[in-house]
Each structure stands twice: as structure tokens, then as C-alpha cells.
Specification:
The structure is a homodimer.
Chain A lengths: L2 E5 L3 H12 L3 E6 L2 H7 L5 E4 L5 H6 L7 E4 L5 H14 L4 E4 L3 H9 L4 E3 L1 H14 L3 E6 L4 E7 L15 H5 L2 E7 L2 E4 L12 E7 H10 L2
Parallel strand pairs in A: 1-2, 1-4, 2-3, 4-5, 5-6
Antiparallel strand pairs in A: 7-8, 8-11, 9-10, 9-11
The structure holds adenosine-5'-triphosphate (2 copies).
One adenosine-5'-triphosphate binds next to helix 1 and strand 2 of chain A.
């Protein structure tokens, strides 16, 4: 169990707080805006109304004692930067900061943020990739050359055939590591497993082969 | 190759546009703000300065002809809602809209958006999960019970042992589907593979076992 301080309870900081609380963690929520603090009063372990860019606020909150500190302040770039450098100077071990744009990101990195996130840009890329490969429900890039992906089978020529009949390993160089059929997952399916319409195959192999397989399942 | 119209070239819409262009797609960028349009003039296939909530703007742009339409307008909820309903009424097949908050999401869903995203909230959840399992570099939830994850090995008691010696399959019920060693990926590694410090194992199996394994590799 670890301790977390979330500074800035907007949509990003708020969702982060809720995720940690749902997983049984101790979370302190801090915001300058009373309404935002009140939204999380009954959710967070504790909440504080404070201006995080003021010198002694973070010291009084003993910010260095938290395992993780998240600076989720958006529009007020100055406040985000000052809170970040104060948290690091006071000794906070792991400071994650949200950046408004690439210049803000460079400042946060230089002043010592351990991780900088750009939620809007990163989601823009994710949704872009989702639109490019609509049958690829999820994927993990293992390296520049390999990936692991969930591919939904909607091509009628695939349905009714077994994994070995489709020759997925020989044709695409892919390992089928799991199949999801109507919500039920079979790990390491038999090569005689017959594929049904809308089954979701989890495959691993060369990235371009995973993309080709996704295109073929259309 | 598909056609895309991105309405709203802020951070989310802009990153989405760049991702599609980087993947060879035809993208029309639309924004009411000339500065934002100019940022993408040399990147997008084509750009237009226009107010997307005006009745005949989307019709004149032949919005129904695009395979995918993304409404990436933020603060102006009215413009986002009007652009979305106009795009659907004109016959756009796939309309993805960004929501400012949960009420906005409900409106967009009711008026016919095919997909609604909340970038800030979704990234807040992702970063929350990342903080909860710091050695889990990536994961895919296959179902309520199963997941696939990349787990980095930093526990010295694991290093120098083979996959079979660690009994990962018997102890955790997990299949090791790949190993990344210094950037190189080995798919379906031999059970005699000796694990090195900082190797990344891709495993698949019951979700709670994946979490236990992640905790153990600390
Ligand atoms: N100096 C400060 N100290 C503490 N909290 C602050 C400070 N400045 C801003 N905040 C809070 O940070 C939160 C997020 O900031 P803001 O709303 O400006 O950004 P945003 O990018 O729209 O956020 P999000 O995308 O997470 O909704 C707000 O709840 C705001 O009240
Ligand atoms: N009626 C409109 N027609 C076309 N574009 C619009 C309209 N209203 C707003 N936009 C554009 O949409 C873009 C995104 O909107 P805005 O900046 O309000 O939201 P945001 O939530 O901060 O965006 P992001 O998080 O993507 O940066 C801006 O570039 C803005 O100019």
C-alpha cells in the first residue's frame, strides 16, 4: 500500500484519484478551488484547499513523505512549474506532472519531474491508432519489430476454420496466445479450435505481420 | 487508405491528425481559429478555416463522404454538440466526438456519436494504473478474469534463474509468451532461458496472478 498526493483535481487528477482509491490506496487530494475539493471530499482519504505554488504549503503537507506526487494542474503553467520544483526540492521521490504543451513539458523535465504526461496528445495518438486498425482492439508494442495484439475476426472466410487450417503461424509468423469467445478466454488454444464470427484472437509476432493479419481479418 | 475529417485542431485533434498523416492517410483539418489551422497547413492533406457549428459548413465540405469524422472541439460544448448532430444528419458513417465531462458525453451519445472519448479522464485512469503496478509496463485486459502484461524483472532473486526454475507456469498459472532482453524480443522463449536483471517478460493468464507476479518481481 502506497501514499499518493494529487495536486489539481480536474478531470485528469480526479480520474487518477478515483482509480487509486478504487484500488485501496491512501490519497490526499489538493486543489485551490473549493468546489473541486468538495467533489472529492467523500472519495479521497483526505482533501485540502490550498494554492500549491505557495512556498510553505507543500512543506506543511509534508509532501516529501508521499511515495508518489502528481501535479495535475493545467492552465496555470506557472503554478504547475512552481509546485513541481517545490515538491522535488522538498524531497518528493516520484513526481508526475501533466504538461499543457511541448514547451511546458521541456520545462517540467528540466526541473526534475520524474514523469511528464500530455493526456490530450497521448489520447489523440491512441485514438488515431484505433481508427487505423479498427479490428485491433488493443495492442502492446514489445519493441520496434514485435507487437502483441487483440484482433477481432469479422471476415467470413475465417469463420468456421480452425487455427491450424488458417495456418496463422506459417503464413503470418504469429503465435495465437489466447482466444476470447463470447467473453470467455481460452489461453493457449488448441490448433483445432474453430474460429467463430467476432472471436477475438490475441497474437504475438512481428509488427508488420500483426498489421497484415489485422487487415486480413476485415 | 481511408479519408478522415478532423474538426478542432487543439492538442487532441492535432495529435490525432499527425498520427493519421504519419500512417499515410488523407486528412482534412478544420478549425475556426486561423492560427491553429496554420499550424497544420503543411501537415494535413488539406485545411479549412470554418465554424463547424454553422448549418451549411459541413454540407459544403461534403462531410458524409469521409470514412471517419472526428469532432475534437473542447470548451465550446454547444459547437461540439451541433457539429456532431449535423455530421450524423448529413450521413457521416463514423463520428468520433470528444467530451468535456460526463453530461456532455451523455448528450453526444444520445445524438448519435459512434464513439465518445474523454481524453483527460481516460489518461487519468491509465496513469493511476501505471502507478499501482510500476513494473507492469503495459497490459491488455482480455476479459474480467484474464490479462496479458509486460512485467519488468528487477527482483534480484529472479535474475540468473531460468523460466522453468522459477516455475512461472506452475506457481502463477502464467504463460511466458515473449522476453525482451536489452531491446531484443524473443517470442516463445525456451524454458531454459536465463532471466537477466531488467528483462521484460510478456505473460498471459488470470488477472490476479498477473498482478501477484508483478508484485513478486519487485
Ligand atoms: N495553484 C494551484 N494549486 C492547487 N490547485 C490548482 C492550482 N491551480 C489550478 N489548480 C487546480 O488544478 C485543476 C486542473 O487545472 P485546470 O482545470 O486549469 O486544467 P485542465 O487542463 O482543464 O485540467 P483537466 O484536463 O485535468 O480537467 C483544477 O481543479 C484547478 O482548480
Ligand atoms: N465552432 C468551431 N468550429 C471549428 N473549430 C472549433 C470550434 N470551436 C472550437 N474549435 C477549435 O477546437 C479546438 C479544440 O478546442 P478547445 O481548445 O476549446 O478545447 P481543448 O479541450 O482545450 O482542446 P485540446 O484538449 O484538444 O487541446 C481549438 O483549436 C478550437 O479553435
Amino acid at each position: 500500500r502506497q501514499t499518493y498526493a494529487i495536486i489539481g483535481l480536474g478531470r485528469f487528477g480526479g480520474a487518477l484519484l478515483e482509480t487509486l482509491i478504487a484500488n485501496g490506496q491512501d490519497v490526499l487530494g489538493i486543489d485551490i478551488n473549493e468546489e473541486h475539493v468538495n467533489e472529492y471530499r467523500d472519495i479521497a482519504t483526505q482533501v485540502v484547499i490550498a494554492d500549491a505554488q505557495e512556498d510553505d504549503v507543500l512543506r506543511k503537507l509534508d509532501i516529501a513523505s508521499f511515495d508518489h506526487v502528481v501535479i495535475a494542474i493545467g492552465h496555470n503553467m506557472q503554478a504547475s512549474i512552481l509546485a513541481t520544483i517545490n515538491a522535488k526540492d522538498l524531497g518528493a521521490k516520484n513526481v508526475i506532472a501533466k504538461a499543457e504543451n511541448r514547451t511546458h513539458l521541456r520545462v517540467l523535465t528540466k526541473i526534475g519531474a520524474d514523469l511528464v504526461v500530455q493526456p490530450e496528445r497521448e489520447m489523440g495518438e491512441r485514438i488515431g491508432r484505433k481508427l487505423l486498425a479498427p479490428n485491433m482492439l488493443n495492442f502492446i508494442e514489445l519493441s520496434d519489430d514485435y507487437s502483441m495484439a487483440e484482433v477481432q475476426i469479422v471476415n467470413p472466410t475465417f469463420t468456421g476454420k480452425t487455427i491450424s487450417e488458417l495456418n496463422i503461424h506459417k503464413k503470418f509468423g504469429l503465435n495465437v496466445i489466447a482466444v476470447r469467445h463470447e467473453g470467455e478466454v481460452i489461453v493457449a488454444p488448441d490448433s483445432k479450435y474453430k474460429i467463430h464470427h467476432k472471436d477475438i484472437l490475441s497474437v504475438v509476432g512481428p509488427k508488420d505481420m500483426v498489421d497484415d493479419f489485422d487487415q486480413m481479418t476485415n
